[in-house]
User: Fold this.
Amino acid sequence: MCGITGWVAYEQDPGARRDAVAAMTETMSCRGPDAGGVWYGDHVALGHRRLAVIDVAGGVQPMAAEEDGRVSAVISYSGEVYGFAALRERLRSAGHRFRTRSDTEVVLRSYLEWGENLAQHLDGMFAFALWDVRRQELLLVRDRLGIKPLYYYPTPDGVLFGSEPKAVLAHPMARARLGADGLRELMTWVNTPGHAIFDGMFQVRPGHVAKVSRGKVTETPYWSLEARPHEDDLDTTVSRVRELLRTAVTDQTVADVPLCSLLSGGLDSSSVAALAARALRTRGEPPLNCYSVGFTPAGPPMPGLPAPAADADYAAELAGRVGAVHEPIVLDAKLLSDPAARAAVLRARDLPQGLADMDTSLYLLFRTIRQRSTVALSGEGADELFGGYPWFHQEEATRADTFPWMYMGPAGVPQGPSFLDPALPERLALDAYRADRYSEALASVPALPGEPEPERRMRKVSYLFLTRFLPMLLERKDRMSMAVGLEVRVPFCDHALVEYVFNVPWAMKTFDGREKSLLRAAMAAELPESILTRKKEPYPTIADPDYDRMLKGRLGELMDDSGAPVRALMDEKSAAEAYAAVQRAAPEELRFLRVGFESLIRIDDWMRGYGVELVE
Assistant:
Protein backbone atom coordinates (compact mmCIF):
# COMPACT_ATOMS: atom_id res chain seq x y z
CA MET A 1 0.00 0.00 0.00
CA CYS A 2 1.20 3.48 -0.79
CA GLY A 3 0.41 7.15 -1.21
CA ILE A 4 0.26 8.80 -4.61
CA THR A 5 0.10 12.40 -5.76
CA GLY A 6 0.92 14.55 -8.75
CA TRP A 7 0.34 17.52 -10.98
CA VAL A 8 -0.57 17.83 -14.65
CA ALA A 9 -0.14 21.31 -16.15
CA TYR A 10 -0.45 21.72 -19.94
CA GLU A 11 0.54 25.39 -19.95
CA GLN A 12 3.56 25.19 -17.63
CA ASP A 13 6.32 22.91 -16.42
CA PRO A 14 5.74 21.19 -13.04
CA GLY A 15 9.44 20.44 -12.99
CA ALA A 16 10.06 24.14 -12.43
CA ARG A 17 8.13 23.92 -9.13
CA ARG A 18 9.76 20.91 -7.56
CA ASP A 19 9.28 22.44 -4.14
CA ALA A 20 5.50 22.20 -4.56
CA VAL A 21 5.64 18.62 -5.82
CA ALA A 22 7.99 17.64 -2.99
CA ALA A 23 5.57 19.14 -0.44
CA MET A 24 2.67 17.19 -1.95
CA THR A 25 4.64 13.96 -1.91
CA GLU A 26 5.86 14.48 1.64
CA THR A 27 2.29 14.59 2.95
CA MET A 28 1.98 10.95 1.87
CA SER A 29 4.95 9.77 3.96
CA CYS A 30 2.62 8.18 6.52
CA ARG A 31 1.07 6.04 3.79
CA GLY A 32 4.47 5.10 2.41
CA PRO A 33 7.19 5.11 5.06
CA ASP A 34 9.58 2.81 3.18
CA ALA A 35 10.58 4.86 0.12
CA GLY A 36 9.62 7.79 -2.07
CA GLY A 37 10.22 9.24 -5.50
CA VAL A 38 9.01 11.67 -8.16
CA TRP A 39 8.98 11.27 -11.95
CA TYR A 40 9.00 14.39 -14.11
CA GLY A 41 7.99 14.59 -17.74
CA ASP A 42 6.57 17.13 -20.16
CA HIS A 43 3.63 18.79 -18.34
CA VAL A 44 3.54 16.22 -15.53
CA ALA A 45 4.99 15.25 -12.17
CA LEU A 46 4.07 11.94 -10.50
CA GLY A 47 4.90 11.57 -6.80
CA HIS A 48 4.95 8.35 -4.81
CA ARG A 49 5.49 7.16 -1.24
CA ARG A 50 5.85 3.41 -0.80
CA LEU A 51 4.78 0.89 1.79
CA ALA A 52 6.61 -2.19 0.53
CA VAL A 53 4.39 -5.30 0.64
CA ILE A 54 5.03 -7.22 -2.61
CA ASP A 55 8.48 -7.53 -4.18
CA VAL A 56 10.12 -5.32 -1.57
CA ALA A 57 13.33 -4.93 -3.60
CA GLY A 58 11.88 -4.60 -7.09
CA GLY A 59 8.65 -2.62 -6.82
CA VAL A 60 10.14 0.88 -6.73
CA GLN A 61 7.90 3.70 -7.97
CA PRO A 62 6.99 5.74 -9.92
CA MET A 63 7.52 2.94 -12.46
CA ALA A 64 8.05 3.46 -16.17
CA ALA A 65 7.43 1.11 -19.09
CA GLU A 66 9.48 1.32 -22.25
CA GLU A 67 8.69 0.37 -25.82
CA ASP A 68 11.35 0.50 -28.51
CA GLY A 69 13.76 2.06 -26.03
CA ARG A 70 11.50 4.98 -25.16
CA VAL A 71 9.28 5.55 -22.10
CA SER A 72 5.67 5.05 -23.13
CA ALA A 73 3.81 5.10 -19.79
CA VAL A 74 4.53 5.83 -16.13
CA ILE A 75 2.50 4.79 -13.08
CA SER A 76 2.17 5.92 -9.47
CA TYR A 77 0.20 3.12 -7.85
CA SER A 78 -1.41 2.40 -4.49
CA GLY A 79 -3.07 -0.88 -3.60
CA GLU A 80 -2.98 -4.59 -4.19
CA VAL A 81 -4.05 -6.62 -7.21
CA TYR A 82 -4.88 -10.11 -6.01
CA GLY A 83 -4.05 -13.02 -8.27
CA PHE A 84 -1.60 -10.79 -10.14
CA ALA A 85 0.75 -13.73 -10.80
CA ALA A 86 -1.83 -15.35 -13.09
CA LEU A 87 -2.45 -12.03 -14.83
CA ARG A 88 1.30 -11.59 -15.33
CA GLU A 89 1.48 -14.99 -17.07
CA ARG A 90 -1.40 -14.00 -19.29
CA LEU A 91 0.42 -10.80 -20.27
CA ARG A 92 3.69 -12.67 -20.73
CA SER A 93 1.93 -14.98 -23.19
CA ALA A 94 0.86 -11.87 -25.09
CA GLY A 95 4.51 -10.84 -25.47
CA HIS A 96 5.12 -8.60 -22.47
CA ARG A 97 8.42 -8.83 -20.60
CA PHE A 98 8.77 -8.17 -16.88
CA ARG A 99 11.66 -6.84 -14.81
CA THR A 100 10.09 -7.27 -11.36
CA ARG A 101 7.81 -9.54 -9.34
CA SER A 102 5.55 -6.64 -8.34
CA ASP A 103 1.85 -6.21 -9.04
CA THR A 104 2.65 -2.59 -9.99
CA GLU A 105 4.38 -3.71 -13.16
CA VAL A 106 1.46 -6.02 -13.94
CA VAL A 107 -0.91 -3.03 -13.77
CA LEU A 108 1.42 -0.95 -15.94
CA ARG A 109 1.69 -3.68 -18.57
CA SER A 110 -2.08 -4.20 -18.43
CA TYR A 111 -2.46 -0.64 -19.64
CA LEU A 112 -0.13 -1.27 -22.57
CA GLU A 113 -2.22 -4.32 -23.45
CA TRP A 114 -5.79 -3.08 -22.85
CA GLY A 115 -5.51 0.70 -22.64
CA GLU A 116 -8.28 2.48 -20.73
CA ASN A 117 -10.08 -0.84 -20.23
CA LEU A 118 -7.34 -2.21 -17.99
CA ALA A 119 -9.32 -1.86 -14.74
CA GLN A 120 -11.81 -4.51 -15.89
CA HIS A 121 -8.95 -7.04 -15.75
CA LEU A 122 -7.83 -6.12 -12.20
CA ASP A 123 -9.11 -7.82 -9.06
CA GLY A 124 -8.25 -5.99 -5.87
CA MET A 125 -8.17 -2.68 -4.03
CA PHE A 126 -6.32 0.07 -5.83
CA ALA A 127 -6.06 3.71 -6.78
CA PHE A 128 -3.46 4.80 -9.30
CA ALA A 129 -2.37 7.51 -11.70
CA LEU A 130 -1.03 6.49 -15.10
CA TRP A 131 0.54 8.97 -17.50
CA ASP A 132 0.56 8.08 -21.18
CA VAL A 133 3.68 9.79 -22.54
CA ARG A 134 2.60 9.36 -26.17
CA ARG A 135 -0.89 10.81 -25.76
CA GLN A 136 0.00 13.27 -23.00
CA GLU A 137 -3.00 12.03 -21.01
CA LEU A 138 -3.47 11.01 -17.39
CA LEU A 139 -5.73 8.23 -16.11
CA LEU A 140 -6.91 8.26 -12.49
CA VAL A 141 -8.35 4.83 -11.64
CA ARG A 142 -10.17 3.69 -8.49
CA ASP A 143 -11.23 0.18 -7.47
CA ARG A 144 -14.81 -1.04 -7.76
CA LEU A 145 -15.95 -0.61 -4.15
CA GLY A 146 -13.86 2.48 -3.36
CA ILE A 147 -11.59 0.76 -0.86
CA LYS A 148 -8.66 3.00 -1.78
CA PRO A 149 -9.19 6.78 -1.93
CA LEU A 150 -8.26 9.12 -4.78
CA TYR A 151 -8.91 12.89 -5.00
CA TYR A 152 -8.41 15.45 -7.75
CA TYR A 153 -8.60 19.22 -8.10
CA PRO A 154 -9.00 20.68 -11.62
CA THR A 155 -6.87 23.74 -12.34
CA PRO A 156 -7.06 26.21 -15.25
CA ASP A 157 -4.56 24.14 -17.26
CA GLY A 158 -4.67 20.65 -15.76
CA VAL A 159 -5.21 18.89 -12.45
CA LEU A 160 -3.73 18.21 -9.01
CA PHE A 161 -4.37 14.80 -7.45
CA GLY A 162 -3.55 12.70 -4.42
CA SER A 163 -4.54 9.75 -2.27
CA GLU A 164 -5.78 12.23 0.32
CA PRO A 165 -6.91 15.88 0.28
CA LYS A 166 -3.81 16.94 2.24
CA ALA A 167 -1.63 16.06 -0.75
CA VAL A 168 -3.66 18.33 -3.02
CA LEU A 169 -3.88 21.13 -0.45
CA ALA A 170 -0.08 21.15 -0.10
CA HIS A 171 0.08 22.79 -3.54
CA PRO A 172 -0.21 26.60 -3.50
CA MET A 173 -2.88 26.53 -6.24
CA ALA A 174 -5.31 24.63 -4.00
CA ARG A 175 -7.24 26.25 -1.16
CA ALA A 176 -9.14 24.74 1.76
CA ARG A 177 -12.44 26.43 1.03
CA LEU A 178 -15.77 25.27 2.47
CA GLY A 179 -18.93 26.28 0.66
CA ALA A 180 -22.61 25.57 1.19
CA ASP A 181 -22.56 22.10 -0.38
CA GLY A 182 -19.50 21.14 1.66
CA LEU A 183 -21.32 22.18 4.83
CA ARG A 184 -24.38 20.23 3.70
CA GLU A 185 -22.32 17.10 3.23
CA LEU A 186 -20.71 17.52 6.65
CA MET A 187 -24.04 18.06 8.38
CA THR A 188 -26.10 15.36 6.65
CA TRP A 189 -23.69 12.42 6.20
CA VAL A 190 -25.31 11.56 2.87
CA ASN A 191 -21.86 10.81 1.43
CA THR A 192 -22.53 11.79 -2.16
CA PRO A 193 -20.22 9.80 -4.48
CA GLY A 194 -17.52 12.02 -5.94
CA HIS A 195 -17.99 14.79 -3.36
CA ALA A 196 -14.87 15.84 -1.48
CA ILE A 197 -16.24 18.55 0.91
CA PHE A 198 -13.60 21.13 -0.11
CA ASP A 199 -14.72 23.51 -2.86
CA GLY A 200 -13.24 22.61 -6.24
CA MET A 201 -12.08 19.16 -5.13
CA PHE A 202 -13.57 15.82 -6.18
CA GLN A 203 -13.14 12.12 -5.49
CA VAL A 204 -12.80 9.65 -8.31
CA ARG A 205 -15.96 7.62 -7.80
CA PRO A 206 -15.67 3.91 -7.04
CA GLY A 207 -15.50 1.82 -10.19
CA HIS A 208 -14.60 4.82 -12.34
CA VAL A 209 -11.74 6.07 -14.50
CA ALA A 210 -11.08 9.81 -14.73
CA LYS A 211 -9.18 10.86 -17.85
CA VAL A 212 -7.30 14.15 -17.87
CA SER A 213 -6.47 15.58 -21.27
CA ARG A 214 -5.76 19.07 -22.50
CA GLY A 215 -8.75 21.21 -21.59
CA LYS A 216 -10.97 18.66 -19.86
CA VAL A 217 -11.47 15.96 -17.22
CA THR A 218 -13.95 13.18 -17.97
CA GLU A 219 -15.01 10.42 -15.61
CA THR A 220 -16.34 7.10 -16.92
CA PRO A 221 -17.65 4.03 -15.05
CA TYR A 222 -16.11 0.62 -15.71
CA TRP A 223 -18.13 -1.27 -13.08
CA SER A 224 -21.37 -1.01 -11.17
CA LEU A 225 -23.71 -3.32 -9.32
CA GLU A 226 -26.17 -5.06 -11.63
CA ALA A 227 -29.47 -6.78 -10.90
CA ARG A 228 -29.45 -10.40 -12.06
CA PRO A 229 -31.81 -13.33 -11.48
CA HIS A 230 -30.62 -15.68 -8.73
CA GLU A 231 -31.24 -19.28 -9.78
CA ASP A 232 -29.29 -21.26 -7.14
CA ASP A 233 -31.15 -23.06 -4.37
CA LEU A 234 -30.27 -22.47 -0.71
CA ASP A 235 -27.70 -25.25 -0.36
CA THR A 236 -25.95 -24.20 -3.56
CA THR A 237 -26.01 -20.56 -2.48
CA VAL A 238 -24.48 -21.34 0.91
CA SER A 239 -21.77 -23.41 -0.76
CA ARG A 240 -21.09 -20.70 -3.33
CA VAL A 241 -20.78 -17.98 -0.66
CA ARG A 242 -18.39 -20.16 1.32
CA GLU A 243 -16.20 -20.75 -1.74
CA LEU A 244 -16.18 -17.12 -2.86
CA LEU A 245 -15.23 -15.92 0.62
CA ARG A 246 -12.59 -18.63 1.02
CA THR A 247 -11.03 -17.63 -2.31
CA ALA A 248 -11.08 -13.93 -1.42
CA VAL A 249 -9.47 -14.48 1.97
CA THR A 250 -6.88 -16.91 0.61
CA ASP A 251 -5.86 -14.51 -2.17
CA GLN A 252 -5.53 -11.70 0.33
CA THR A 253 -3.17 -13.57 2.65
CA VAL A 254 -0.37 -13.27 0.07
CA ALA A 255 2.32 -10.83 1.23
CA ASP A 256 6.10 -10.60 1.47
CA VAL A 257 5.81 -8.96 4.91
CA PRO A 258 4.17 -9.95 8.23
CA LEU A 259 0.38 -10.38 8.02
CA CYS A 260 -2.25 -10.50 10.79
CA SER A 261 -6.01 -10.32 11.28
CA LEU A 262 -8.26 -7.96 13.25
CA LEU A 263 -10.44 -10.11 15.49
CA SER A 264 -13.36 -8.90 17.61
CA GLY A 265 -14.78 -12.36 18.08
CA GLY A 266 -17.87 -11.42 16.06
CA LEU A 267 -19.13 -13.36 13.06
CA ASP A 268 -17.45 -11.18 10.42
CA SER A 269 -13.91 -10.91 11.76
CA SER A 270 -14.00 -14.53 12.99
CA SER A 271 -14.95 -15.73 9.51
CA VAL A 272 -11.99 -13.91 7.98
CA ALA A 273 -9.56 -15.05 10.69
CA ALA A 274 -10.67 -18.69 10.47
CA LEU A 275 -10.25 -18.83 6.70
CA ALA A 276 -6.95 -16.93 6.82
CA ALA A 277 -5.56 -19.28 9.48
CA ARG A 278 -6.54 -22.23 7.29
CA ALA A 279 -4.85 -20.69 4.22
CA LEU A 280 -1.58 -20.07 6.08
CA ARG A 281 -1.64 -23.54 7.59
CA THR A 282 -2.23 -25.12 4.16
CA ARG A 283 0.82 -23.30 2.77
CA GLY A 284 2.93 -24.38 5.75
CA GLU A 285 3.36 -20.82 7.02
CA PRO A 286 3.51 -19.73 10.70
CA PRO A 287 0.23 -19.35 12.65
CA LEU A 288 -1.93 -16.28 12.09
CA ASN A 289 -1.57 -13.46 14.62
CA CYS A 290 -4.86 -11.82 15.67
CA TYR A 291 -5.57 -8.63 17.62
CA SER A 292 -8.64 -7.36 19.47
CA VAL A 293 -9.22 -4.01 21.19
CA GLY A 294 -10.60 -3.25 24.64
CA PHE A 295 -10.71 -0.44 27.18
CA THR A 296 -9.91 0.02 30.84
CA PRO A 297 -11.86 0.65 32.91
CA ALA A 298 -14.79 -0.91 31.09
CA GLY A 299 -17.36 1.41 32.71
CA PRO A 300 -21.16 1.28 32.36
CA PRO A 301 -22.86 1.03 28.96
CA MET A 302 -24.28 4.04 27.17
CA PRO A 303 -27.79 4.99 28.41
CA GLY A 304 -30.41 2.68 26.92
CA LEU A 305 -27.87 0.16 25.64
CA PRO A 306 -26.98 -3.24 27.11
CA ALA A 307 -23.48 -3.86 28.38
CA PRO A 308 -21.37 -5.21 25.51
CA ALA A 309 -19.74 -8.61 25.77
CA ALA A 310 -15.97 -8.79 26.11
CA ASP A 311 -14.58 -9.14 22.60
CA ALA A 312 -11.30 -10.56 23.87
CA ASP A 313 -13.00 -13.64 25.33
CA TYR A 314 -14.66 -14.56 22.03
CA ALA A 315 -11.51 -13.72 20.08
CA ALA A 316 -9.43 -16.00 22.31
CA GLU A 317 -11.91 -18.83 21.81
CA LEU A 318 -11.80 -18.47 18.03
CA ALA A 319 -8.00 -18.26 17.99
CA GLY A 320 -7.75 -21.43 20.05
CA ARG A 321 -10.05 -23.27 17.67
CA VAL A 322 -8.23 -22.31 14.46
CA GLY A 323 -4.67 -22.42 15.82
CA ALA A 324 -4.09 -18.68 15.68
CA VAL A 325 -2.23 -16.49 18.19
CA HIS A 326 -4.45 -13.89 19.88
CA GLU A 327 -3.28 -10.73 21.62
CA PRO A 328 -5.73 -8.27 23.21
CA ILE A 329 -4.72 -4.61 22.98
CA VAL A 330 -6.09 -2.54 25.87
CA LEU A 331 -6.45 1.26 25.70
CA ASP A 332 -7.23 3.76 28.46
CA ALA A 333 -8.46 7.33 28.78
CA LYS A 334 -4.94 8.74 28.97
CA LEU A 335 -4.11 7.28 25.57
CA LEU A 336 -7.40 8.31 24.00
CA SER A 337 -7.22 11.87 25.33
CA ASP A 338 -3.60 12.39 24.29
CA PRO A 339 -3.61 15.63 22.23
CA ALA A 340 -0.99 14.19 19.87
CA ALA A 341 -3.15 11.15 19.11
CA ARG A 342 -6.26 13.27 18.56
CA ALA A 343 -4.31 15.63 16.28
CA ALA A 344 -2.95 12.64 14.33
CA VAL A 345 -6.49 11.35 13.80
CA LEU A 346 -7.72 14.69 12.47
CA ARG A 347 -4.66 14.95 10.23
CA ALA A 348 -5.34 11.46 8.95
CA ARG A 349 -9.01 12.15 8.22
CA ASP A 350 -8.49 15.62 6.69
CA LEU A 351 -12.09 16.33 7.68
CA PRO A 352 -14.04 16.73 10.94
CA GLN A 353 -16.35 13.90 9.97
CA GLY A 354 -15.68 10.91 12.14
CA LEU A 355 -16.66 8.70 15.04
CA ALA A 356 -14.91 10.61 17.85
CA ASP A 357 -13.14 8.31 20.33
CA MET A 358 -13.84 5.32 18.07
CA ASP A 359 -11.57 6.89 15.44
CA THR A 360 -8.88 7.57 18.03
CA SER A 361 -9.06 4.05 19.43
CA LEU A 362 -8.86 2.58 15.93
CA TYR A 363 -5.80 4.72 15.21
CA LEU A 364 -4.13 3.62 18.46
CA LEU A 365 -5.01 -0.01 17.78
CA PHE A 366 -3.45 0.20 14.32
CA ARG A 367 -0.41 2.01 15.66
CA THR A 368 0.20 -0.83 18.10
CA ILE A 369 -0.40 -3.51 15.47
CA ARG A 370 2.01 -1.78 13.09
CA GLN A 371 4.82 -2.51 15.54
CA ARG A 372 4.16 -6.20 14.90
CA SER A 373 2.77 -6.44 11.36
CA THR A 374 2.52 -4.60 8.04
CA VAL A 375 -0.72 -6.09 6.63
CA ALA A 376 -3.99 -6.80 8.45
CA LEU A 377 -7.21 -8.50 7.36
CA SER A 378 -10.57 -7.01 8.42
CA GLY A 379 -14.24 -8.02 8.31
CA GLU A 380 -15.45 -4.65 6.98
CA GLY A 381 -18.32 -4.94 4.51
CA ALA A 382 -20.10 -8.02 5.83
CA ASP A 383 -22.92 -6.07 7.51
CA GLU A 384 -23.70 -4.12 4.35
CA LEU A 385 -23.48 -7.22 2.17
CA PHE A 386 -25.37 -9.76 4.29
CA GLY A 387 -27.80 -7.45 6.11
CA GLY A 388 -26.27 -7.22 9.56
CA TYR A 389 -27.43 -3.79 10.71
CA PRO A 390 -30.67 -3.37 12.70
CA TRP A 391 -32.04 -1.04 10.00
CA PHE A 392 -32.27 -3.96 7.57
CA HIS A 393 -34.73 -5.63 9.92
CA GLN A 394 -36.89 -2.61 10.79
CA GLU A 395 -39.64 -2.37 8.19
CA GLU A 396 -40.26 1.29 9.03
CA ALA A 397 -36.62 2.09 8.28
CA THR A 398 -36.64 0.19 4.99
CA ARG A 399 -39.83 1.95 3.90
CA ALA A 400 -38.80 5.42 5.10
CA ASP A 401 -38.40 8.09 2.45
CA THR A 402 -34.75 8.63 3.37
CA PHE A 403 -31.54 6.68 3.82
CA PRO A 404 -32.35 3.84 6.25
CA TRP A 405 -29.58 4.76 8.69
CA MET A 406 -31.09 8.25 9.00
CA TYR A 407 -34.51 6.97 10.03
CA MET A 408 -35.21 8.13 13.59
CA GLY A 409 -38.68 6.68 14.11
CA PRO A 410 -42.06 8.43 13.91
CA ALA A 411 -41.31 10.66 16.91
CA GLY A 412 -37.78 11.50 15.83
CA VAL A 413 -35.05 12.09 18.38
CA PRO A 414 -35.42 14.78 21.07
CA GLN A 415 -33.08 17.66 20.31
CA GLY A 416 -31.53 19.67 23.12
CA PRO A 417 -29.76 23.00 22.76
CA SER A 418 -27.20 23.00 19.97
CA PHE A 419 -23.74 24.54 19.93
CA LEU A 420 -24.07 25.20 16.21
CA ASP A 421 -26.48 27.84 14.95
CA PRO A 422 -29.99 26.28 15.05
CA ALA A 423 -30.83 28.29 11.94
CA LEU A 424 -28.16 26.54 9.89
CA PRO A 425 -30.32 23.58 8.79
CA GLU A 426 -32.99 25.89 7.38
CA ARG A 427 -30.51 28.32 5.87
CA LEU A 428 -28.70 25.47 4.12
CA ALA A 429 -31.99 23.73 3.20
CA LEU A 430 -30.64 20.49 4.66
CA ASP A 431 -33.93 18.61 4.38
CA ALA A 432 -34.18 19.39 0.67
CA TYR A 433 -30.51 18.53 0.13
CA ARG A 434 -30.92 15.20 1.89
CA ALA A 435 -34.06 14.45 -0.11
CA ASP A 436 -32.37 15.32 -3.41
CA ARG A 437 -29.39 13.09 -2.66
CA TYR A 438 -31.73 10.26 -1.67
CA SER A 439 -33.67 10.63 -4.94
CA GLU A 440 -30.42 10.54 -6.90
CA ALA A 441 -29.36 7.38 -5.09
CA LEU A 442 -32.71 5.69 -5.76
CA ALA A 443 -32.49 6.55 -9.44
CA SER A 444 -29.28 4.54 -9.73
CA VAL A 445 -30.60 1.37 -8.05
CA PRO A 446 -30.57 -1.46 -10.61
CA ALA A 447 -33.96 -3.11 -11.17
CA LEU A 448 -34.88 -6.70 -11.90
CA PRO A 449 -38.04 -6.88 -14.03
CA GLY A 450 -40.90 -8.53 -12.20
CA GLU A 451 -39.15 -8.59 -8.82
CA PRO A 452 -41.83 -8.61 -6.10
CA GLU A 453 -42.06 -6.75 -2.81
CA PRO A 454 -40.28 -6.93 -0.39
CA GLU A 455 -37.39 -8.16 -2.57
CA ARG A 456 -37.38 -4.98 -4.64
CA ARG A 457 -37.38 -2.86 -1.49
CA MET A 458 -34.58 -4.82 0.15
CA ARG A 459 -32.49 -4.66 -3.02
CA LYS A 460 -32.81 -0.88 -2.74
CA VAL A 461 -31.74 -0.95 0.90
CA SER A 462 -28.75 -3.20 0.13
CA TYR A 463 -27.69 -0.94 -2.72
CA LEU A 464 -27.84 2.17 -0.54
CA PHE A 465 -25.68 0.56 2.14
CA LEU A 466 -23.12 -0.75 -0.34
CA THR A 467 -22.78 2.49 -2.32
CA ARG A 468 -23.34 5.20 0.33
CA PHE A 469 -22.77 3.79 3.83
CA LEU A 470 -19.93 1.33 3.26
CA PRO A 471 -17.65 3.89 1.54
CA MET A 472 -17.71 6.01 4.71
CA LEU A 473 -16.45 3.07 6.78
CA LEU A 474 -13.88 2.06 4.18
CA GLU A 475 -12.46 5.57 4.09
CA ARG A 476 -12.29 5.64 7.89
CA LYS A 477 -10.43 2.35 8.02
CA ASP A 478 -8.08 3.36 5.21
CA ARG A 479 -7.18 6.67 6.87
CA MET A 480 -6.68 5.30 10.38
CA SER A 481 -4.52 2.41 9.13
CA MET A 482 -2.48 4.27 6.54
CA ALA A 483 -1.73 7.03 9.05
CA VAL A 484 0.62 4.51 10.67
CA GLY A 485 1.67 2.69 7.49
CA LEU A 486 -0.53 -0.38 8.02
CA GLU A 487 -2.26 -1.96 5.05
CA VAL A 488 -5.76 -3.27 5.83
CA ARG A 489 -7.40 -5.69 3.39
CA VAL A 490 -11.16 -6.32 3.30
CA PRO A 491 -12.09 -9.72 1.78
CA PHE A 492 -15.84 -9.11 2.10
CA CYS A 493 -15.42 -6.32 -0.48
CA ASP A 494 -14.17 -8.74 -3.12
CA HIS A 495 -16.24 -7.74 -6.13
CA ALA A 496 -17.10 -11.30 -7.20
CA LEU A 497 -18.53 -11.98 -3.73
CA VAL A 498 -20.37 -8.65 -3.70
CA GLU A 499 -21.91 -9.24 -7.14
CA TYR A 500 -23.14 -12.68 -6.14
CA VAL A 501 -24.55 -11.86 -2.70
CA PHE A 502 -26.17 -8.62 -3.89
CA ASN A 503 -28.44 -10.71 -6.11
CA VAL A 504 -29.33 -13.35 -3.51
CA PRO A 505 -33.01 -12.81 -2.53
CA TRP A 506 -33.59 -11.24 0.88
CA ALA A 507 -35.72 -14.22 1.92
CA MET A 508 -32.69 -16.45 1.39
CA LYS A 509 -30.31 -14.06 3.17
CA THR A 510 -32.53 -14.29 6.25
CA PHE A 511 -33.81 -17.84 5.80
CA ASP A 512 -33.66 -18.70 9.53
CA GLY A 513 -35.04 -15.39 10.75
CA ARG A 514 -31.71 -13.93 11.92
CA GLU A 515 -29.43 -11.27 10.58
CA LYS A 516 -26.70 -12.57 8.26
CA SER A 517 -28.27 -16.05 8.10
CA LEU A 518 -26.47 -16.79 4.86
CA LEU A 519 -23.02 -15.98 6.24
CA ARG A 520 -23.68 -17.99 9.40
CA ALA A 521 -24.65 -21.00 7.33
CA ALA A 522 -21.61 -20.63 5.09
CA MET A 523 -19.26 -20.54 8.09
CA ALA A 524 -21.04 -23.09 10.29
CA ALA A 525 -18.30 -25.70 9.94
CA GLU A 526 -15.49 -23.22 10.67
CA LEU A 527 -16.68 -21.37 13.77
CA PRO A 528 -17.63 -22.33 17.35
CA GLU A 529 -21.31 -22.22 18.25
CA SER A 530 -20.77 -19.33 20.67
CA ILE A 531 -19.65 -17.07 17.81
CA LEU A 532 -22.26 -18.35 15.36
CA THR A 533 -24.99 -17.41 17.83
CA ARG A 534 -23.39 -14.25 19.24
CA LYS A 535 -25.55 -11.16 18.94
CA LYS A 536 -24.03 -8.37 16.84
CA GLU A 537 -22.08 -5.89 18.94
CA PRO A 538 -21.13 -2.35 17.89
CA TYR A 539 -17.52 -1.24 17.79
CA PRO A 540 -16.58 -0.55 21.45
CA THR A 541 -16.40 2.96 22.85
CA ILE A 542 -14.59 4.21 25.94
CA ALA A 543 -16.58 4.63 29.16
CA ASP A 544 -13.92 6.20 31.36
CA PRO A 545 -15.17 9.43 33.09
CA ASP A 546 -11.64 10.85 32.81
CA TYR A 547 -12.09 10.99 29.04
CA ASP A 548 -15.33 12.96 29.41
CA ARG A 549 -13.71 15.36 31.88
CA MET A 550 -10.83 15.95 29.46
CA LEU A 551 -13.28 16.85 26.69
CA LYS A 552 -15.26 19.09 29.01
CA GLY A 553 -12.07 21.00 29.80
CA ARG A 554 -11.28 21.41 26.11
CA LEU A 555 -14.83 22.64 25.51
CA GLY A 556 -14.38 25.27 28.22
CA GLU A 557 -11.27 26.57 26.47
CA LEU A 558 -13.17 26.81 23.19
CA MET A 559 -16.08 28.67 24.79
CA ASP A 560 -13.67 31.18 26.32
CA ASP A 561 -12.02 31.84 22.94
CA SER A 562 -13.98 34.51 21.10
CA GLY A 563 -11.70 34.07 18.10
CA ALA A 564 -12.32 30.34 17.69
CA PRO A 565 -12.94 29.67 13.96
CA VAL A 566 -15.98 27.48 14.64
CA ARG A 567 -17.78 30.41 16.24
CA ALA A 568 -18.67 31.52 12.71
CA LEU A 569 -21.04 28.53 12.69
CA MET A 570 -22.36 29.04 16.23
CA ASP A 571 -25.24 30.95 17.76
CA GLU A 572 -24.17 32.57 21.04
CA LYS A 573 -27.48 32.08 22.87
CA SER A 574 -27.94 28.46 21.88
CA ALA A 575 -24.29 27.67 22.52
CA ALA A 576 -24.49 29.21 26.00
CA GLU A 577 -27.53 27.05 26.80
CA ALA A 578 -25.78 23.95 25.52
CA TYR A 579 -22.67 24.72 27.53
CA ALA A 580 -24.76 25.23 30.67
CA ALA A 581 -26.32 21.79 30.11
CA VAL A 582 -22.85 20.27 29.90
CA GLN A 583 -21.73 22.08 33.02
CA ARG A 584 -24.58 20.74 35.17
CA ALA A 585 -24.61 17.22 33.69
CA ALA A 586 -23.90 14.31 36.01
CA PRO A 587 -20.95 12.07 35.02
CA GLU A 588 -23.23 9.40 33.52
CA GLU A 589 -25.05 12.08 31.48
CA LEU A 590 -21.84 13.69 30.28
CA ARG A 591 -20.91 10.61 28.28
CA PHE A 592 -24.18 10.90 26.36
CA LEU A 593 -23.78 14.65 25.75
CA ARG A 594 -20.18 14.39 24.60
CA VAL A 595 -21.24 13.26 21.14
CA GLY A 596 -22.39 16.80 20.38
CA PHE A 597 -19.64 18.86 21.91
CA GLU A 598 -16.83 16.57 20.82
CA SER A 599 -18.00 17.19 17.25
CA LEU A 600 -17.81 20.93 17.87
CA ILE A 601 -14.25 20.61 19.18
CA ARG A 602 -13.27 18.54 16.17
CA ILE A 603 -14.69 21.08 13.71
CA ASP A 604 -12.79 23.90 15.43
CA ASP A 605 -9.54 21.93 15.42
CA TRP A 606 -10.04 21.22 11.72
CA MET A 607 -10.75 24.81 10.77
CA ARG A 608 -7.66 25.94 12.67
CA GLY A 609 -5.34 23.24 11.39
CA TYR A 610 -6.35 23.53 7.74
CA GLY A 611 -6.97 27.26 7.59
CA VAL A 612 -10.49 26.59 6.32
CA GLU A 613 -12.16 29.51 4.56
CA LEU A 614 -15.96 29.72 4.68
CA VAL A 615 -17.38 30.84 1.33
CA GLU A 616 -20.90 31.57 0.15
Summary: The CA atoms of residues 38 and 173 lie 19 Å apart. The chain has a mean pLDDT of 92. The two ends are 38 Å apart (CA to CA). Residues 2-221 form a domain with the Glutamine Phosphoribosylpyrophosphate, subunit 1, domain 1 fold (CATH 3.60.20.10).
